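Re: Re: ligand-bound prediction request (bumping)

Still looking for help on this. To restate: I need the protein modeled with manganese (II) ion bound, output as structure tokens. Inputs repeated here so nobody has to scroll up.
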Amino acid sequence: MIVVMREDASDAQIQAISNRIRGMGFDIHPDRGANRTVLGVIGDTSRLDPRSLEMEEGVAEVLRVTEPYKLASRAFHPNDTVIRIGDVAIGGDEVIVIAGPCAVENAEQIRETASRVRQAGARILRGGAFKPRTSPYSFQGLGEKGLELLRDAAREQDMLCVSEVMEPAYVRSVADRVDIVQVGARNMQNFPLLKEVGRIDKPVLLKRGMSATIEELLMAAEYIMASGNPRVMLCERGIRTFETYTRNTMDISAIPVVKKRSHLPILADPSHGTGRRDKVAPMARAAVAAGADGLIIEVHTHPDQALSDGPQSLYPDRFAALMEELKTIAWAIGRRIGAGSDREPERNR
Ligand code: PEP
Ligand code: MN
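Reply:
Sorry for the wait, this slipped through. Here it is.
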């Protein structure tokens, strides 16, 4: 249930109704917007009569939230959530690009890739150190050593970094080394893992499971938020369908659907979304046009030698060209992307 306060409601009135609701055994999550305050009431609100609250001083209206997610819902938090890490803001005007290899393989590979993607305008470096591989015989990642190589390469380029965690027991150690902790598609409903990343003080990049509905994705975000971590960004990365010409089916429509239902930033991963290098740029362009707050793209200096996901990894030059194309699209929808991109792109002048 949400209590929408009137624009002219005083602090004392907000306090009074909050105290009354807490007194009845509910939790309150206040959201102080620019114009008015919205109070999210958490708990079994079926026994609460909205009319009795509507009679209170300063209350504009009381609404029942029908979605099973609350903290992640736009009804509870009408304004977009902007996640700030250093000078990077995810969910604001700038479309943030995360780029790097699928997996950290060695120091030279991650340092060289970091330098190339940074030059092209990426703000955050990606690189898996704990890899969820379908086969137990495939490269499993360098583990903690990989996280250190990733972090050092990112710092060298003045970038942030993100890496995946697969087990609750490793959450602290991953969180200590990276700026954003990723929960991968295969773990979207690993509830002990979601609760554990809910207890850390680092933003979480939560990927949509390959057979998950958007509601299940938002419920997974709710787990993290209910455990105490409000800094969640979602990521569409393709779902399984009957189609076989792409690795997954990139669900571009998930972007505007999430935007309507939730205040959390939504990113798009066209690399896993298509599984084919030649399909990455078209889907990246489409995702930005559809309103994605960011992209996560796999880039490798030698994709033919990559230890994982080579066929979907872009060469650095193609990535740089894509960043230029994206500037035009971002500009067309009133956003910006990459360094110095608040100007009109060259070709539009
Ligand atoms: C990844 O980002 O490398 C990854 C494994 O992604 P997903 O969980 O979306 O498959
Ligand atoms: Mn990958």
